[in-house]
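Ticket #4471: structure output looks truncated?

Reporter: J.K.
Steps to reproduce: submitted the chain below (100 residues) through the standard prediction queue, then opened the result file.
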Amino acid sequence: MCSELHAPGHWTGQPLLGISVFAVLGEPLDDLLRRRFTTSRTIYLPTVGRLAEYGFELLPTAQRPHFTVRLRRADDQELGQLLEAFGAPQRNPAYPGSAS
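Returned output as attached by the reporter:
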């Protein structure tokens, strides 16, 4: 799963604050990175299971493979938990100039 910041929006007509993520579904990670993330130096690769372990809800939004990790409060505590769930940032091999 790759992620980027998602602005406040709406889901089922209700206000939504969350983090935009792209799931690796039906295509190799490298293909998704080359198609969507060539401008990102680093990426996060949490699993759906890890996000669920930390109590985060994954919502289908926009078009597959796009989802939103719902934030309830977006306070320091919740954002800290989100960073723990996301794990360490990783070098993006699709970023121009990255060594493969």
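Triage note (M.O.): checked the attachment and the full token line is present. Residues 30 and 93 are 8 Å apart (CA to CA).
Status: closed, working as intended.
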